[in-house]
Amino acid sequence: MTWSILARDAQGRFGLAIASRFFAVGALCLHSQRSVGALATQALMNPLYGRAGLALLAAGHSAAEVVAALAAGDAGREHRQLHVLAGVGAGAAHTGTACIDWCGHQLFDDFSVAGNMLAGPQVLAATADAYLSTAGLPLAERLLAAMAAGEAAGGDKRGKQAAALRIQADEDYLQLDLRVDDHADPITELQRLYQVSLQRSQPFTACLAGRHDPVGLIDRDQIEARIASWQIDAPVQTQR
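-> structure tokens emitted (240 positions)
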């Protein structure tokens, strides 16, 4: 009932995107941790995979070892779909035998795609192809393009309802966290929200306290100047 993409860029950031004919699909399916990895649990999702999987990655286990351990410890594993991307190395995935067709996954050096209850294998193929063909764009825009291509190829065979996008950068909090929980065209709405986030939200978040600056910008004039500069530069950034 869902398909998703996990990606890691050259700066070590993780991007996650998902869509489904299921309410608030972004609430329990997507999990990530700075410098550790990203994980998506779907089909009959197991939200417990998130914390457990990231803890295993943080302890030094590979994506393949994490997938194997989570599946082995879950009596419901044949009803689950899971894919994992660590800070280094290729991703790994599990698609249970009881997942509803069409279901499957594809693994690449720095990203993975997985889905179930889809219109067909072309959904994942289109998602992956679009991600590959948009190299050079910002990570979030590559993920949005990938999900839009998967939707155009048929998406969830039951229809549309929800989508989500998150970017985990070099902070413990998310750089970007967008969700569309119930909408007639959720991926298009997610793309709109992303454009809105460029206006003030993303530049404001860049001013906040963080690991490398425990105070951040507190001068409101400087914050507004940063936002204004970001707004001028944003159209160039989104097309490079």
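Residues 220-237 form the longest helix (18 residues).
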